[in-house]
Specification:
The complex is a heterodimer of chains A (716) and B (208). Chain A is an alpha/beta fold and 716 residues long. Chain A is built from 35 helices and 20 strands. In chain A, helix 27 packs antiparallel against helix 28. Chain B has one domain: NagB/RpiA/CoA transferase-like (Rossmann fold, 3-Layer(aba) Sandwich), CATH 3.40.50. Chain B is 34% helix and 26% strand. The chains are: A alpha/beta (716), B alpha/beta (208). Chains A and B meet through helix 2, helix 8, helix 9, helix 10 and helix 11 of A and helix 4, helix 6, helix 7, strand 9 and strand 10 of B. The complex binds iron/sulfur cluster (2 copies). One iron/sulfur cluster binds next to helix 14 and helix 16 of chain A.
Chain lengths: 716, 208
């Protein structure tokens, strides 16, 4: 749980987590194993359609939330179940304590419920004098340790078998050895006793079916079955977002939920409970059953045009499983109670701005979560939205305001960049590497060697470069992005040469500026809008066949980001759409140009691996073109195991959370090293800055190149 | 739905993937014989694997002491099968219980149930366990044996939607999908079977 107040405290906690060796290696193994497990579980299935169906079903249910609640209540009360709706966590806890008192229950067993974690139900009940035992193995472990979960599906994933053995030794008063199989059996016997004694069982629910008043529970251990069977009272605490019209929607969700959560086709048990069942320990042989629906901000969310999709979440935990930051810092630093991408978002709504303020800044915007979400939620975008809201409510930090101001005026921005070049002179020793200190406007850290701002940016070189093409096959406008313009102009030059040779006429509209992604990432929404408008006008999309950029992040922002920015602005939306249609990443455009002849450079004898920029592979769905170009450049392509894992750059992220960024980078370079490649190719100047700087710092003999450079180099 | 042999083969593959043991029987009598033979083969103190030899707190130890004789739980048998099973059990000195399962929370060796449906796509058994004893038999036994008529096999859960809808409308109702044994991966993500429920699931596919 996040109890820290300031970003500084938060960073220091994060740094602590980064030093936890066990956590780090456990998380690395998990990240790799999860990917394979998930792919196997979904083999042969049309995952995209399934996700779209789930999203539609959940959206429809959220839109009818109150109606479904009324229907559920009617059906369930007909069967003798008591149904309640509470608006806050506190009300939920008080109501459940009252139910326990009314039924003279003292001992309570619980099965896993994130909703009960959300309300901190155990604390409340224990303070009221009830004995509460978690029966899910992982939950029991963290309960005994007095911790919160570090993963929504595997709450004790941060602990080693040795820690568990020590804990169980304390609990049983007997020395326990650390063999996992045996530890599990100890829990089996110890907890069986608890079920026998319990008066009341508390469960959550994965599904609440309005037409029959049924709750559905998906579990593996079988503890929820005992919790809902043995004690004479059963209370289910359910988020009101779990309501569905009927079992049909639940079966649909259940196709994705276990596959996405743990790579299982289905959980060991799926239990459907309708009404108070026979119960031999109850006075009249029938269980007392209560279902408590929790609102806690959900009904307001359902009305929110931007955030209502948050309610689609089925709590599979996959967005944490694939998150490069979660992998480095673990769940206790990547959420308050709900964890992973969805945790960053719902913390703001369920637990307030205080708890969310620092968390939402710790997203690198790699899009890995969005790509696996079982419900198709646009998680990275919503994280940025929360960040922007927090800043609007609390005031914007100075650096972010300044950057926003500067970017709005292209001239000011470029003047400042030029003077930054002069300022850096004494520090770069005339080499291409900025060794220490401020890179442009943000504090930087030296976990990688940083490149310097060049003497003559691309925009100054352009007038002398301006190539002439007679009878052009097509015309393109080049969008340079700041990093290539001011730091890596040679990449743009390489591309201009390649294109000109193929009779493509290249133009460089001079009024273009930064794409605006950095300010959007910092929560400066208005600056992002202004810059986007300037660029759309500057690039004059109607006069060219394509707008080509060598920066994957720019490409994704120009193509997808701009459309989102202007979707509710009737005067700009059509322009943004026409603009977006023209935007193409370099690899896609150039692979298309080459397709007309059988271009193939002779083999260079070098092995080449590839880093897929997040915004290219997931943002734009481009995977094949860069692979093809590597082969066409005469390089032997050796794929890396984690080709699509983020490099840790994330623009301003790497200066905000340098230590996390450095850890992600070192894992990435290790993965590249294992391929035995001589060259690492990618298609984003940000990734190049990160990877080249990291390889240099480590002393790796790995040449890091932009795909345009690799092609140009081998053509020489 | 695809042809029956295909569905049976798919069911078997998927169930075995989650470490269920799948066998075929001709008739209910063979299922009873399988059950008694399995129980007989089971070590005198199978509880070994269930944690009886583990050093436990005194209270949990007490619960262990409650169980001495081998026990088969088979609530809800019809058509004279209970009598047949009783005879087989007597022969081997096994205790048969057909009700009052709460007296046996320390654990029973085998729970035998005739299930309602099977779902091939996931290797799942579907059992209406609204009867509390039936429910407990599938929860507290160390080995659960589920007998499934091949005619009750469906390809996916969606093929059972109407039947499920009907069950949920007949209240109160407690319907269980059971796939493989009880499992956990909560410690270091290492798979361990039998955390709260059965350690093994045996499925007997019965000719129609
Ligand atoms: S975008 Fe990337 S860093 Fe951000 S939450 Fe999603 S997976 Fe994590
Ligand atoms: S946001 Fe998506 S991926 Fe994350 S837990 Fe919810 S459904 Fe799963």
């Amino acid at each position: 749980m996040q109890e820290v107040k300031t970003l500084k405290e938060y960073k220091s906690n994060v740094d602590g987590a980064l030093e936890n060796e066990f956590l780090r290696s456990a998380m690395d193994k998990f990240a790799v194993a999860y990917r394979t497990g998930r792919a196997n579980a979904f083999a042969g299935m049309d995952v995209d359609s399934l996700v779209a169906e789930i999203a539609a079903a959940k959206d429809a249910a959220a839109a009818r939330m109150d109606e479904l609640y009324e229907e559920f209540k009617r059906s369930a009360e007909k069967n003798g179940t008591r149904v309640h709706l509470v608006s806050t966590a506190r009300e939920a806890n008080e109501l459940i304590a009252a139910i326990a008192r009314e039924n003279e229950a003292r001992k309570i067993v619980k099965s896993k419920s994130m909703t009960a974690e959300e309300t901190l139900l155990n604390h409340h009940l224990e303070a009221e004098g009830f004995e509460v035992t978690e029966t899910d193995l992982g939950e029991w472990i963290i309960q005994l340790r007095g911790e919160g979960p570090s993963h929504m599906v595997m709450p004790a994933i941060h602990l080693s078998r040795y820690q568990v053995a020590d804990l169980f030794s304390d609990v049983t008063g007997q020395k326990q050895d650390s063999e996992i199989e045996r530890l599990v059996k100890v829990a089996r016997r110890e907890l069986r006793q608890k079920y026998v004694e319990a008066d009341m069982g508390i469960s959550g629910a994965n599904f609440a079916l309005a037409d029959t008043g049924t709750i559905g529970l998906a579990t593996n251990e079988g503890n929820a079955r005992l919790v809902t069977t043995l004690p004479r009272v059963h209370v289910a605490l359910v988020g009101i977002d779990k309501l569905l019209p009927s079992i049909h929607e639940a079966l649909l969700i259940n196709r994705a939920l276990p596959r996405n959560a743990t790579g299982q086709q289905i959980t060991s048990y799926v239990t459907w409970i309708t009404g108070p069942n026979a119960c031999a320990s109850a006075p009249d042989d029938t269980k007392v059953m209560h279902i408590v629906f929790l609102d806690n901000g959900r009904r307001a969310l359902a009305e929110d045009p931007v955030f209502s999709q948050v309610l689609r979440c089925v709590r599979c935990g996959a967005c944490a499983n694939v998150c490069p930051v979660y992998r480095m810092v673990g769940g206790h630093q990547y959420g308050h109670i709900y964890i992973g991408a969805i945790g960053l978002i719902v913390t703001y709504f369920f637990h307030g701005r205080e708890k969310a303020r620092n968390l939402v800044q710790n997203c690198i915007n790699c899009g890995a979560c969005k790509a696996v979400c079982a419900a198709g939620i646009d998680l990275p975008r919503l994280i940025k939205e929360v960040h922007a809201r927090v800043q609007d409510e609390e005031g914007h930090p100075l650096t972010s305001l300044l950057l926003g101001k500067v970017l709005r005026s292209r001239k000011l921005f470029h003047t400042l960049l030029r003077s930054a070049r002069v300022a850096q002179k004494p520090m770069t020793d005339e080499t291409r590497y900025l060794r220490h200190l401020p890179f442009v406007f943000l504090k930087q850290h030296d976990f990688r060697a940083l490149p310097a701002i060049v003497d003559r940016p691309f925009r100054d070189r352009w007038p002398s470069l301006q190539p002439k093409v007679n009878n052009p096959a097509c015309r393109v406008a080049l969008f340079s992005g700041c990093l290539q313009d001011f730091v890596y102009p040679e990449q743009l030059e390489a591309a201009v040469d390649l294109l000109t040779e193929r009779d493509v006429a290249v133009e460089f509209p001079r009024d273009q500026s930064c794409c605006g992604l950095p300010v959007e990432m910092m929560g400066e929404k208005q600056a992002a809008v202004d810059v986007a408008r300037q660029n759309i006008l500057a690039m004059a999309p109607d006069q060219v066949d394509a707008i080509v950029t060598l920066c994957a992040s720019c490409a994704n922002h120009l193509k997808n980001g701009y459309r989102k920015i202007f979707e509710n602005d009737p005067s700009m939306a059509p322009k943004a759409r026409r603009f977006a249609e023209k935007v193409q990443p370099f690899s896609v455009f150039f692979d298309g140009v080459l397709a007309s002849d059988s271009h193939q450079l002779p083999p260079s004898g070098q092995k080449c691996t590839y880093h897929a920029p997040c915004h290219l592979c997931r943002g734009l769905g481009v995977r094949q073109a860069p692979h093809d170009l590597i082969t066409k450049a005469g390089l032997e392509f050796v794929p890396a195991e984690e080709e699509e894992t983020c490099c840790g750059f994330g623009g301003t992220y790497s200066s905000k959370f340098p230590k996390i960024s450095a850890q992600i980078l070192s894992r990435k370079l290790e993965d590249a090293r294992q391929t035995g490649a001589d060259v690492l190719v990618t298609e984003c100047p940000g990734c190049i800055m990160q990877l080249r700087g990291g390889a240099k710092k480590r002393g790796d003999r790995l040449e890091v190149l932009h795909i345009a450079e690799a092609l140009a180099k081998n053509a020489e | 739905m695809p042809p029956l042999e295909e569905v049976v083969a798919l069911f078997r593959t998927k169930a075995e993937l989650v470490s269920a043991t799948v066998s075929e029987v001709e008739n209910p009598m063979q299922a009873l014989e399988y059950t008694v033979a399995l129980c007989d083969r089971k070590q005198a103190c199978q509880l070994l694997v269930a944690g009886c030899d583990a050093p436990l707190s005194p209270k949990a130890e007490d619960l262990c002491d409650h169980k001495q004789q081998k026990v088969i739980a088979a609530p809800g048998l019809v058509n004279g099968l209970a009598e047949d099973l009783q005879e087989l059990c007597d022969h081997k000195g096994i205790r048969l219980v057909t009700g009052g399962l709460r007296e046996h929370l320390a654990g029973v060796d085998i729970g035998l149930t005739f299930v309602d449906y099977g779902i091939a796509e996931t290797g799942t058994l579907v059992l209406d366990s609204s009867n509390e004893d039936l429910r407990l038999a599938t929860m507290i036994s160390e080995i659960h044996i589920g007998v499934l008529s091949k005619s009750r096999l469906r390809h996916s859960a969606f093929d059972l939607e109407d039947e499920l809808q009907n069950s949920l409308r007949t209240t109160p109702n407690y319907t269980a999908f059971i796939t493989g044994a009880s499992r956990t991966a909560d410690i270091e993500r290492v798979l361990a079977l039998g955390v709260h429920g059965p350690l093994e699931l045996h499925i007997l596919l019965m000719e129609n």
